[in-house]
Amino acid sequence: MSYIGNYPEIQQYTLAVDKFNGDSACTEFTLSRPITDPIAVEVLVNNVQQTPDEAYTLSAGVITFTEAPSTGSNNIVIIHRSTTVFTKVQVGTNDVQDGAITFSKLGNDVTSNLLANTGVTSGTYGGESAVSVITVGDDGRITSASNVAISIPTQYETANAMPTMLMLSGM
Predict the structure, then answer these.
(1) Buried (b) or exposed (e) across 106-144, using 16+ Cβ within 10 A?
(2) Can you give the pLDDT at residue 31?
């Protein structure tokens, strides 16, 4: 898997200035860039800075003034503040730091979609009358688990059947 998400896109702009001629009638002007954020530009009309959302709005690269700017030659100046726009629509493996993605963030996707079922059932293996037998594959995953009953020969099943050792003393 080389990417998580979409491919990265980087757009780099140099600082730009748009100039328009006011005519005391027109309120809409098309910018050289598709800016939509009103604070991404500095707007001057007759060298007076205009307040975003009060004096103008922006939508799809079109600035709309609340009042038509006065008549003048290049008396409307729009300075684009943002010089670089980064649009990350895809995160690459180089973008993710080691240890940044935890199992809890991946959740059920890892166990249900990526890991093949080994057939091992959950449970407790081994105990007083059984020994657990576990097989681990090359990838470190348990591939089989079972119980094997502990077999005690009948001669050792009772306490009296234990071998007796005689201690001789005084000889």
Answers:
(1) eeeeeeeeeeeeeeeeeeebeeeeeeeeeeeeeeeeeee
(2) 94
